[in-house]
Amino acid sequence: MFKQYINGKLVDGKGREMPVYNPATGKVIDSVGCADASQTKEALIAAAEAFKTWSKTSVNERAAWLYKLKEACTAERDYLIELVSSESGRPYAAACGDVDWLLTSLSFYAEEAKRIEGEVIPPLNVGGKLNYQIITKQPVGVTVGHLAWNYPLGNASIKLAPAIASGCTCIIKPSSETPLATLYVGVIAEKIGFPKGVLNILSGPSSEVAKTLNESTIPRLISLIGSYETGLKLMEQGVTSLKKYSLELGGNAPVVVMPDADLDETAANIVAKKVGFAGQTCVNYNRIYIHESIYDVMCEKVKTELSKVKLGSWKDEGYIMGPVINNEARDRMLSLIEDAKEKGAKLVMGGEVPEEFSEGSFITPALLIDVTDDIRVSNEEIFGPIIPLQPFKTLDEAIEKSNNTIFGLSAYFFGHNAKEMSRYFENVTAGEFFVNGGIGSEFSPHSGAKQSGIGCDKSKHSLEEYYDIKFLSMIP
What we know:
Strand content: 25-35%
Number of domains: 2
Structural class: alpha/beta
Radius of gyration: 24 Å
Helix content: 25-40%
CATH class of the largest domain: Alpha Beta
Strand order of the largest sheet: 16-17-18-13-12-20-21
Shape: globular
């Protein structure tokens, strides 16, 4: 049974025992003794006490501890990969990517914190004396990071690493769907004697653990990777005190494919995006608009590419797609497909639960064509392996369709006309744009517009959220 990591020690959870399932097999992997409200308060108090000293350590000391944690996690990389794959259903290569995201983030923020600088404003002359003015930055205090289940360690890394590097202390709450790999980071932290109270990892029911964290007056920054509805609930619970928020709340990403796009590469990219981790990412393609002049050709190319994909898990060979996270998510995919069919879309292939995979949460990736904007797959974040295609006539129409959502996280464009590319970038409201398969990195900000969130993950811009500005005016 996995334990909680509180104030530098692994402790038994005082709450109920919670099984964790492998979505590829439907079988229990292990269990977690959940934290309860009293242990959550213990973690908050421990983090507040640790902040008194950790905030005064040098940036080099903080960086050294992050590198020490990275080294220890690297030594247990294989086991972390196994945990991520088994609890999330990610095939081996995708699980490797999640663990390596953790490792990269630890060193990135260790170095980036060394570049946080203050300012000296030109002095004023006050009665013949020089009045010096200085701006510095100080860590905000205790931080809380609520994680989504789809990237157990990647999501954890972009919350704990900037907090620790900046001089804050943190409490990380993994999703109850995928808590094991994140809780094991607590095992590693205890092994290396990580400073007590600086990092705390708690798993348990949101109705108890998350609610206690959000309602506490101790945290100064609460961050979340989750749904729009969860973000609103979090902010309602957090009104007990003034807090900073950094909320990534999902999206409804538009994809525009122009006539001059490389059609083979674009079709391959669309399929890879939608079957990579079974489409369960917040930045995934949700509404795919294809210019009418190439629509029929692209539908066939996507179908051909999709036919290469087969279901599988762990280290199965070939072009494999794993399961969705649970049966509820699978059944929701089936419901989305039925809604689309009832409203005129055509199911070209997929959207079935094969008998040989019925024990897990598998569904074959589905291709829908002739989709319209008035159906669920166009208005809800799909978060699964459904590829919905629809034609458009003009770029102005595509821009209007792209903006027809309350969300604004990611947007995608395929084509090589610089003027069209620029028009799309300037007129579509989203936090990040990707052209012809471009990708982000730890250096690139991940932020949302409209109802997709506030604040930023990744990059130096995320790190800045963990500081308060402090001004000094001084006449020596």
